[in-house]
Amino acid sequence: MPDSVQYVKDISIFSPRTSEAVELHTLNIYFIIASSAILILVIGLLIFISFKFRARQKNQAEPKQIYSNRLLEIFMVGVPFLMVSYFFYLTIKTMKDTESQVLNEKPTVVITGKQWFWDVHYPNGAVTANEIHLPVNERVLLQLKAADVIHDWWVPSFGAKMDMIPGVTNYLWLRILKPGTYVGACSEFCGRQHANMRIKVIAQTRKDYDKWLAENAKPAIISPDENIKKGELLFSKNSCGSCHSIRGTGANGKVGPDLTHIASRGTLLSGLVENNKENLTRFISNPQEVKPGVNMPRFIYAKDSIAVLVDYLSSLK
Ligand code: CUA
Predict the structure, then answer these.
(1) Which ligand 1 atom lies nearest to the CA of residue 191?
(2) DSSP annotation of 107
(3) Ligand 1 centroid to 252 CA: how many Å?
(4) Which ligand 1 atom is the nearest neighbour of the CA of 194?
(5) pLDDT tens across 249-262, in order?
(6) Residue 119 beta carbon below 6 angstroms from any ligand 1 atom
(7) Residue nearest to ligand 1 atom 1, measured at CA
(8) pLDDT for 86-124, tens place per residue?
(9) CA angle, 277 as apex, 273 and 283 as ends, to 5°?
């Protein structure tokens, strides 16, 4: 089992990186402050009263009984009522402000959750998996679907979570504030590899994003190198193309991740391992050992065939 890729940066709802997440974060902070103040007040009064009115040796008589205090009662009901009303208003306002209204708008990207990877399609024909590129400083619309069971999109620093349900199309608006790499994970138990269904969002400036998008819409560039040609032939002979697409070649399967530009991605297997020849070799040699439960069968056994195949895939930039 190869070492997993370690993600540690910014995986928190306390580091909001989209305008929607900032609003949710602000509301969250208001709630934390108010509830902490109430907690401190109640515990403080409890300690104070138990100390001040504790039973003493000298005076064992029953204390004076008070049956009603109109002013105090109005205060005790009124203040919580006003606080709850105010927070209700704040919650509704934040919900309205961050709500995913979709009025016949074209999604920026269509993401489909599958066991166990993210299938990512762009309107211009670009296709990728797991590493989702998005532009910063503009509202982007994510269309979220599921192919098999329920998955759940969640990048904590982007704010809202969104379920991906078979047969249902959900949407999420985002305005990412800064370029960078943001990570998340599937947040609905979806089977054996649920924990390894990671999300990586690469937020780029418009210019970099357009460049990436244009390059990814292009078909694969197959090097004329003899070894690479051999790899392409092996790929089709072993019917890898029944499940995977490599645009521009005969491979047009829709089951597994699109491999047209696989070498341009930083990670493999939904962010589980780094994308390098060593990990690719390990996976093709024995998929179940690297990613137990994965749908990819093991059908290539010869070491030199695997090496040629790995060379071919690693050339698909
Ligand atoms: Cu997909 Cu959990």
Answers:
(1) 2
(2) P
(3) 25
(4) 2
(5) 877 888 888 888 88
(6) no
(7) 151
(8) 999 999 999 888 876 677 788 999 999 999 999 999 998
(9) 55
